[in-house]
Design brief:
The chain is of the alpha/beta class. Helices cover about 40% and strands about 20% of the residues. The structure holds zinc ion. This is ROK family protein.
Amino acid sequence: MEKQYVIGVDLGGTKISTALAELNGNILSENTIPTNAKYGEEAVLSRIIYAIERILEVTGKKVDEIKAIGIGSPGPLDSKKGVIIETPNIPFKNFQLVRPIEDRFEIPTYLENDANAAAIGEFMFGAGKNTRNMVYITVSTGIGAGAIVEGRIYRGNTCNALELGHSTILPDGPRCNCGNYGCLEVLSSGTAIARVANEHLKAGADSSLKNYEVVTSYEVFQEAKKGDKLSLDVLNKCLQYLGIGIANIITIMDPEVVVLGGGVSLAGDIVFDRVNKVVGERCFKVLRENCRVVPAALGKQSGVVGSVALAIMESLEDK
Ligand SMILES: [Zn+2]
């Protein structure tokens, strides 16, 4: 039977989203179920298998019509071995995820960290379409990234390339969750923006942010747009660090486009204007004039579209 479809699985700490798509990326059906992470790794594996069975049933497709399964998961992981090494929100510890799924369905299955999968999604179907060299960066509670080099995902030696969020920007900066100090993530993620604003408020700074019971990065962006000085100062600093991180990656990778996704990028011009200014100041002219920093196009769908794109890209490369 001709294999005309792929399945993408976006594995997250709270939910698993699964899609069945045509080889052009057109999604025919999608389902989302709770991950039930608290029941352990075998239980999560069973949930993934259930989600795949369910989508085959709903669409009436047979196993031998499916060319590949792509799974995007938090890492670190080893995509060559199909093993999830460890994740903060799902109880995996050196867990072989790919083999049991291949054994169950007899469909080639590929595992990739979620930022890389989203990068492949933006490259094939989003803001990186028609490029050959692209970097994707997601800025929300944390910072993740993935790179496409000459049309292929760049994994590196241990499949953990582009851990941009944990590159050092400020040697004596605050301590990051990873144990290092002054990582990009601890300076300019959504979590960092909220933390810095709250520190200033606690120290008695005057600001319209005082009117909120809880201040997250969302409130900081809202008040900055209304002209609140503290919010503007906090963003100025945090987004300067983000700009430096992006200028560094442009200097290293020389991409055609940097695609910026995640919650923070949704704040729009205030983010892109600041980042572009820093890139303009810090990158060689030839690099900055040939690279655009643009918003991601896939939004909330980036996870599931990324997993679908991973399955398509891998199955094409296997030929
Ligand atoms: Zn770190």
